[in-house]
């Protein structure tokens, strides 16, 4: 079974939604077109029942996916949650938590995902009172 | 031993009813194989050859050195990985989209699969700046666009062609620390540039014969707003 990802998709925090092209050590000063080969998504929360939540599995809304059948294409694809930090690690302010789409969640295209380490609560969408 | 090798392959006289259970019993097989006849020929005893005398080996001296602890040696692993199976959509001449690395998004022509399993790919260099390069199948999308690759000869290109040169061992010395900075940038050997040109020459002809293919290969692939990958047909 081919374990490598066919294509990578990325989840972003809803706030800020920064689009990050992979922080590989690239030639500096490279002027290029912005190539996006990933799909954006939003972290909705952890898998949960009314009163309990299970942080080992997160729920992710992938842009443009609205039905359970469409999720089949994304099953097994890799996810990256990218966030910034003040301290530079490996030469970059950006850090990443890798994960995978595991299965659909419900009928409306939401997806369950497991990450290498559980996603932090600040990754989730925050509803502000109007 | 030549005559024995020329025999027809042995067929068992005892067909399997089910795997592990033969049709004939031990005594029935004794009769079928004709062991009774062989014994009769040999005076009632099954013929037996004495083992050939082994050549004399020199007497082994007990070793001078015994290691202090009995340490287990790990078993040898002779496993050689097979070449990765090539996806059905990727055939020589297919246009591929690279998904990761320096050339991500570039559309590139697939030449052949190397023995290591990696895909040999070229821009062509003049069209989109991608040289002869190895690429992993997992980081690639195969499109349905094919280029005629019959005029291209890639037989001399192998995994060894792409391997890094082993770094020379330098003796430590202060003067050499300064020199090492200069040596880092190695110019591409002329032979590699020539190989690129020969491979690309035939390819570019084939590409220019197809309308718009050249601009297609020169352009990069990117997802845009509202584009859903699961609905795209490559």
Automatic annotation (TrEMBL), chain A:
Keyword Disulfide bond: no
GO CC terms in record: ribonucleoprotein complex; ribosome
One of the Pfam families matching this protein, by short name: Ribosomal_L35Ae
GO molecular function annotations of the record: mRNA binding; structural constituent of ribosome
Swiss-Prot/TrEMBL keywords: Ribonucleoprotein, Ribosomal protein
Family: Belongs to the eukaryotic ribosomal protein eL33 family.
HAMAP family: Ribosomal_eL33
UniProt-listed PANTHER family: 60S RIBOSOMAL PROTEIN L35A
Protein name in UniProt: 60S ribosomal protein L35a-3
Upper taxonomic lineage: Eukaryota, Viridiplantae, Streptophyta, Embryophyta, Tracheophyta
Automatic annotation (TrEMBL), chain B:
One GO term of the biological process aspect: translation
The keyword Calcium is annotated on this UniProt entry: no
A Pfam family this chain is assigned to: Ribosomal_L6e_N
Residue ranges, compositional bias (Basic residues): 74-85
Example GO molecular function: structural constituent of ribosome
Positions of the Large ribosomal subunit protein uL6 N-terminal domain: 3-62
Family to which this protein belongs: Belongs to the eukaryotic ribosomal protein eL6 family.
Biased composition annotated in UniProt, kind: Basic and acidic residues: 47-73
Protein's name in the database: Large ribosomal subunit protein uL6 N-terminal domain-containing protein
Segments for region (Disordered): 41-85, 172-196
SUPFAM superfamilies in alphabetical order: Translation proteins SH3-like domain (SSF50104)
GO cellular component assignments: ribonucleoprotein complex; ribosome
Keywords on record: Ribonucleoprotein, Ribosomal protein
PANTHER family hit by this protein: 60S RIBOSOMAL PROTEIN L6, LARGE RIBOSOMAL SUBUNIT PROTEIN EL6
Matches recorded under CDD domains: KOW_RPL6
Nucleus keyword on record: no
């Amino acid at each position: 079974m081919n374990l490598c990802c066919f294509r990578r998709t990325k989840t972003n925090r809803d706030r800020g939604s920064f689009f990050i092209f992979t922080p590989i050590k690239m030639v500096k000063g490279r002027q290029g077109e912005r190539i996006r080969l990933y799909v954006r998504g939003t972290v909705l929360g952890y898998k949960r029942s009314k009163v309990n939540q299970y942080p080992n599995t997160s729920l992710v809304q992938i842009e443009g996916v609205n039905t359970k059948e469409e999720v089949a294409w994304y099953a097994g694809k890799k996810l990256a949650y990218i966030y910034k930090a003040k301290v530079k690690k490996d030469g970059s302010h950006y850090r990443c938590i890798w994960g995978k789409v595991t299965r659909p969640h419900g009928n409306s295209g939401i997806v369950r995902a497991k990450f290498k380490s559980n996603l932090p609560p600040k990754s989730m969408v925050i509803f502000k009172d109007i | 031993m030549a005559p024995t090798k020329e025999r027809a392959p042995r067929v068992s006289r005892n067909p399997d009813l089910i795997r592990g259970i033969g049709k004939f019993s031990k005594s029935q097989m004794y009769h079928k194989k004709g062991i009774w006849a062989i014994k009769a020929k040999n005076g009632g005893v099954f013929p037996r050859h004495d083992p050939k005398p082994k050549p004399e080996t020199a007497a082994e001296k007990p070793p001078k050195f015994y290691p202090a602890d009995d340490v287990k040696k790990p078993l040898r692993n002779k496993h050689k990985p097979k070449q990765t199976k090539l996806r059905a959509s990727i055939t020589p001449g297919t246009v591929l989209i690279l998904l990761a690395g320096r050339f991500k998004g570039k559309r590139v022509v697939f030449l052949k699969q190397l023995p290591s399993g990696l895909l040999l790919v070229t821009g062509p260099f003049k069209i989109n700046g991608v040289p002869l390069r190895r690429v992993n199948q997992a980081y690639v999308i195969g499109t349905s666009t094919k280029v005629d690759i019959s005029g291209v000869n890639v037989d001399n290109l192998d995994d060894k062609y792409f391997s890094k040169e082993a770094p020379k061992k330098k003796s430590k010395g202060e003067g050499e620390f300064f020199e090492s900075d200069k040596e880092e940038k190695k110019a591409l050997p002329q032979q590699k540039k020539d190989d690129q040109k020969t491979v690309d020459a035939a390819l570019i002809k084939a590409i220019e014969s197809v309308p718009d293919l050249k601009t297609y290969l020169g352009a990069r692939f990117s997802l845009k707003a509202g584009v859903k990958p699961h609905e795209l047909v490559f």
